[in-house]
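Supplementary material to the annual report.
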Amino acid sequence: MTELTTPLAVRTVPPGVSVIEIGGEITRESDQALQDAYERAAQGTRTIILAFEGLEYMNSSGIGLLVTLLVRAKRNHQRILACGLSDHYHKIFELTRLDEVISIYATEDAAIAAAA
Amino acid sequence: MSQTPEPRDAAGWAPPVQTLSVADGHINVSGRRPTAPIHGFGKMWQKTYRISLRDIAVSPREVITLWKEHFPEFWPAKSKFFAPLAGIAPGEVAALDLGMPGGMKLSTGVLVLFADDESFTLMTPQGHMFAGWITFSSFVEDGDTQAQAQVLMRASDPLYELGMIFGGHRQEDKHWVHTLSSLAARLGADDEVIIKTVCVDKRREWSRVSNVWQNAGIRSALYMLGAPVRALHRSSRPEA
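Predicted assembly:
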């Protein structure tokens, strides 16, 4: 693999829901970036939406990072929702059975509506 | 779900699978669902075992190619990994016999969840000692190629959790230290394996207590104890 990048943008949308926009690649190297994004997103919210529209590559180390993020959120009594998964990444969520613990929505609007 | 072209990781992932199957009738594998760390009972651990292949001219791709092709050879003698015929490739299932104290063996298996040129991941089925996955990878850090095994797991049920506390973790450490040392030795390196253990979640998932019904250790022991009865039954059958 060449240079790895994980651009992660964090924003807050009404009604007090944080959205982490996940772009680029999620791999072993994304650990710190994902942790930092979670810290920013977690302030004062009970629901965090992971928006995967910009995801270009994810290996098994990357999905491991999502598991640890999920555990941290659960420990802090926060809910994690996901949206914007392509068919491919939706299948990976099913394969790894993450879909059993993370509610998946087709769009960000649908995820926000569910969070409200 | 949005429709986008297949990303370049597509070939690395196993196809969707509900339950595992192995052809040779190995117990505790066929019909079992693969499990993620979230499906276990015990505390969640991330254990990282790493060895530096310093001063060895080998690329991460070469390390992973060697590791995949000779995976069972690097294991401790007491445990056996029955590699799939197609090798370590996404979606393949391997059977395992793990050496346990008292001469017992624990029969289980793994699904190859992900495999590419620089890493591969094995996912455990229901009944395995732990729910989770093990990722084997190689990369360059500070100019040296590294080989790494990283386990993200929860003990599957209360019995395994007790077992992990009373020697299981130590046994697992020995297993992967042996594996990494053997791999490094094959490449001509002899550095020490560095272990980093992080407790990701101290809580136990009491809703998973019933996983004990799938416990491959208990089922393997019962299967071994039943061997004389099965042999007697076979010998008393009239020949066709």
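The interface with chain B takes residues 1, 28, 53, 55-61, 64, 67-68, 70-71, 74-75, 84-92, 94-98, 100-101, 106 of chain A (CB under 8 Å).
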